Amino acid sequence: MTRFLHLADIHLGRQQYGVPQRATDAKLSFQHALSQVSAEDADAILLPGDLFDSRDVRPETLASVEDVLADVEVPVIVSPGNHDQNMSRRRDLTWLQYLNNKGLITLLSADFADDRVSFAPTDAESPREGGGGYVDLETDEGTVRVFGVQYRGAYMERQIPVVVDGIEAVNAAEGEPAATVVLAHFGVDDAVPDLGATVSVASLTPLMDAVDYVALGHIHKRYEVENVYNPGSLEAFSVQEGRWDDAHGYYVVDAADWSADHRVSKRRPYVTVEFDVSGYRTFDDLRAAFEDAVRDEQGRVESVCSNAEFQTGDGSRRDPIVNLRLTGTLLLDHVAFDVDALRDITEETLGALYVQPTDNTERKAIQELLGDIDRDEAFAADGTVNTDALQERVFTTLAEESRYSTAADDVAATLDELEGLVTEDDAGVGEAASYLRERRRELFPDGVGEPGETDEAAAAEGGEAE
Question: pLDDT-based confidence at 443, cuts 50/70/90?
Answer without folding.
Answer: confident
